[in-house]
Amino acid sequence: MQIEEMLEYNKKFVADKNYEQFLSNTIPNKKMVVFTCMESRLVELLPKALNIQNGDVKMVKNAGAIIRKSFDSIIKSILVAIYKLQAEEVVVIGHHDCGMSCVDTHDLKDKMKAEGITDETFKALEYSGIDFHKEFHGFNTVEESIAQSVEIIREHPLLPSHVLVHGLVIDPNTGKVDVISLDKKEKTEKN
After folding, report:
1. Residues placed in the known binding site
2. 116 shares its domain with 189
3. What is the pTM of this model?
4. What is the span of the domain harbouring residue 61?
């Protein structure tokens, strides 16, 4: 198991005090929250491509950097970063060649069934008002998806007026970042 190797490494990491180089407080230095995809190619590339150091931002991730509902867990995390951790900017960052752009929900459901998830479970979800295909559907273009997520955040009734919300797309092969949307409103002082 990989976890055993990681835990062994951690013992040495702590014993050697390698954590000291990462010490920071809980308030992000750049007063920013970054919402991005869980893509493994971005773990080191994204921070390096945007000069983000440990302690600079709050980082929130999910599959595809997708927000569909105004009160999902991502929005809650963003609002906590704003109200409790002094974030003043939100940056939504998607990436080209995202796995969520080609999710075949029927294939995904078949794979779940092959792993033992029963038809009764899917029926129970449906009965509870959960549309499996709608929940797991990805997006057609990353640009449209990022624009949608940015719009949901910008229009949120609990978002303070001084908070800026931007949308970017990164190339996971080169680190090149393209702007989808920059919040051009005048940054106002907090009330």
Report:
1. 37, 95, 98
2. no
3. 0.89
4. 28-97+140-191
